[in-house]
Design brief:
The complex is a heterodimer.
Chain A: H1 3-17, H2 21-40, H3 44-66, H4 72-76, H5 79-85, H6 90-119, H7 124-151, H8 159-169, H9 171-183, H10 192-221
Helix pairs in contact in A: 1-6, 2-3, 2-6, 3-6, 3-7, 3-9, 6-7, 6-10, 7-8, 7-9, 7-10, 9-10
Chain B: H1 9-40, H2 54-80, H3 84-116, H4 124-145, H5 149-164, H6 166-176, H7 196-239, H8 241-252
Classes of the chains: A mainly alpha, B mainly alpha.
Chain lengths: 222, 253
Amino acid sequence: MHWITALFLRDFKLAVRVGGGALIGVLFFLAVVTVFPFGVGPDLKLLARIGSAVLWIGALLSTLLGLDRLFQADRDDGTLDLYLLAGRPMELVVLVKCAAHWAATGLPLVLATPLFALFLNLEPIAIGAVTLTLVIGTPALTLIGAVGAGVTVSLRRGGVLLAILVVPLSIPVLIFGVSSATAVLSATASFTTPLLYLGAVTLFAGVVGPVSAAAALRYASD
Amino acid sequence: MNFYDLANPSFFLRLVTRVLPWLVAITLLLFAAGLYLAFTAPQDYQQGITVRIMFVHVPAAWLGMFCYGLMAIASIGSLVWRHPLADVSAKAAAPLGACFTFLALFTGAVWGQPMWGTWWVWDARLTSFLVLFIMYLGIIALWKTLDDPNKAARPIAILTLVGALNLPIIKFSVDLWNTLHQPASVFRMDGPTIHPALLVPLLVMALAFTFFFVVMHLMSMRNEIYRRRVRAMRMRAAAAPSARASLAETNKA
């Protein structure tokens, strides 16, 4: 088996099986979606208007929740040092780990989105739009989060600080994702333009995230 | 004197001691001139007296961004050249940048209330400044959390550089989402649109703020160097209890 496949499968299995795994993020997502109508009121028209944004914020928060597990366990048991010693490009290792992490935590969120969208009274076309934007956007959240996870990897309880560091960096993702997802409900706003920007941000994060996270992990390991 | 001499903290401290009084004097003179010009400047025909808020608001906003740029350059210095003063410079700049950004947000709110009728709008530039403020606070929190300043410098430098990608978004957000905040009116291709009677005091105040920043930054770098020396001494003392014990014995004898 090629080392990339092996690493992906190992990380994917660990992420799915350890500590509630993939379901815990989806449960948190459901909790956020459930809490919103209690906050803003059960008005179905209002929920249909803000529903896409609620789903995006829920997905962002759920992603933040799992980020500290991206490198933490590998550092604790010394696997990280082995990755660094193995002579593989660390950037690629980080990219594969992010892909596995996304497949285990981000993809379930995307799959749950059409179901949760029904609670928020979204129209079918809006459900499609928000799911599509989340498919494109959540990898960017994981990749940007990898920077924060790499920088805070040496901290014992860096979870909250990690979220604070990652949220400002993920704002462009949220802006383009939400504006594209809500554009389908409006007659004038463009759906494609923010969607393309969102794709650009994801590709950009695909370069910046692994490179900076790998650099941070190298310094963290000494 | 060259770039590498500056890497020696003792040389840097001597240099700071020599230039600091002059810099303080220049800062005071510039503030005296700037404040005088600001208060004798004509009132705006629409905004009245509130236009004077601009003389604090705009320099604070410039420095809020300038300071992040400085931190980004210092981060490159600490990642590429491992320049020890670059770490110190980046660390000392973060709280200053946070203060200037807060000042810009605060004066902006005070100015926005009479002019726009609201303390806060979610306009692109205001929002990106708030984001900048949160980023400063996150970096400060990270400096405080990682206890070894020598090991903290490089991860934080990486984070600072990633965050620096947000700075262009701040600068050009005005053109991207053109909303309530007025478009850039000083640095434009076709020359400033602001009247010279207001522009001159603004530039003097901006210069005064910049010198003020330099003074504060140098003082805060000096404090950080002393703080690290104290830390190193304490570690050495803690690592050598036998030396202390023998010292106590000689004192007894």
